[in-house]
Amino acid sequence: MAKMTVRDIDVRGKRVLCRVDFNVPLEGSRISDDSRIQESMPTINHIVGNGGRLILVAHFGRPKGKVSDEMRLTPVAARLGEILGKAVRLFDPFAEGWDQAEAASRALADGDVMMLENIRFHPGEEKGDEDLARSLARLGDVYVNDAFGAAHRAHSSTATVAKHVQPAVAGFLMEKELKFLGEALANPERPFIAIIGGSKISTKFGVLDALLGKVDRLLIGGGMAYTFFKAKGFAIGKSICEDDQIEAAKALMAKAGDKLMLPVDTVYADEFSDDAKVITYPVDEVPSNCEMQGLDIGPETISLMEDCIMTSKTIFWNGPLGVFELERFAEGTEQVGRFIVESGATSIVGGGESAAACRKYGFAGEITHISTGGGASLEFIEGRSLPGVEALTDK
Ligand code: ADP
Ligand code: MG
């Protein structure tokens, strides 16, 4: 790793300003899944256990630069307090001011933890504002970034702040993400395949193109496949399709040749529901007057993917193969996930919904690495530099 990590610094007695990704799902004021908090516990425990004075910075939701009572971090601070078994003071610099925030940070004892209120309440955060970065920098003697999920954003608390607090180092989660996504994908054991699904091809084009140069085979499923089918001149009924991506899809198919594996059959439904009437069509036999929509890959495709997955040694998976949120159209996603685990290959999953699918079907624990960063993991694989990583101090 070219950047310094928490391993490289002595935190004892120091104020450690630490950016984390605690953007957890909430149901009312209850956290329905605290895995984002759990993922940063190795870093937090390390800092607290070694006598650091921890000041956490996090965002929650999209308050768009305004204070919003629904987006306060109160439940998050409470949950962290339970996990740590000690009080976590939630400090609101937007109400009490930065002088008070600095005073609070200086009043911490070794091993104490405080958390700042939702940093996106500040209109400068998402703009990478210098003043906000300087205000944050007053709270820390060192800076740790463990928020891989926000590392593709050049925000004040993820990137700009690192100019003003040095050293700026990676936390353990950040380090782990960069290790798996970087090293494992740069030098994969072959055959190396990628399986890409999800709804919108426009959000995945960069990654498809980048992966093409690295993988032995590129398997496509999910909603994005229909843009390829339309580009091939097949009827697709009411399936999801991005017409402005058709030319790009044609170019990608020409460039990829045999490397690209598109579905050969898909499951069409007369409505977006578990009670829908369904027909499985070979992709080139959908009637031109079809009023149905394709919502999952079909059995022939599942079987072809199985053969390919079982002989692979490294697999990157992003994006469900169908609308797995509906039981009736979950078959492709569930089966492909199982094959990935059964293959024994090194497996890396990126993307919010794909990770959710792995948890839903109970094989998340058997995946080698599930990335916590949807957008960040895709941008990293595309070969784009992540501002939150760039800003860290070189080793
Ligand atoms: P990830 O979060 O894993 O990167 P995406 O956000 O790209 O995945 O896409 C996930 C969504 O794609 C899922 O919610 C799923 O319902 C949807 N999807 C998959 N296949 C289809 C399809 N055939 N038609 C419409 N939506 C689909
Ligand atoms: Mg998603």
Short description:
This protein is an alpha/beta fold and 395 residues long.
Structural overview:
With about 400 residues, the protein is of the alpha/beta class. It folds into 2 domains: about 170 residues, 3-Layer(aba) Sandwich (Rossmann fold), CATH 3.40.50.1260; about 200 residues, Rossmann fold, CATH 3.40.50. The protein is built from 15 helices and 17 strands. The strands form 4 sheets. It has a 6-stranded parallel sheet, sandwiched between helices. Strands 11-10-9-15-16-17 form a 6-stranded parallel sheet, with helices on both faces. Helix 13 links the parallel strand 16 and strand 17. Helix 9 crosses helix 10 and helix 11 runs parallel beside helix 12. The longest helix has 15 residues. The site of adenosine-5'-diphosphate has 19 residues, from strand 14 and helix 13.
Strand count, sense and closure of the main sheet?
Answer: 6 strands, parallel
Bound molecules: adenosine-5'-diphosphate, magnesium ion
Head-to-tail CA distance between termini: 8 Å
| Tally of structural domains | 2
Corresponding CATH superfamily of the largest domain: Phosphoglycerate kinase, N-terminal domain
What is the CATH-assigned architecture of the largest domain?
A: 3-Layer(aba) Sandwich
Total count of helical runs of at least 4 residues: 15
Read across the widest sheet, the strand sequence of neighbours is: 5-6-4-1-7-8
Structural class: alpha/beta
Overall 3D geometry? elongated
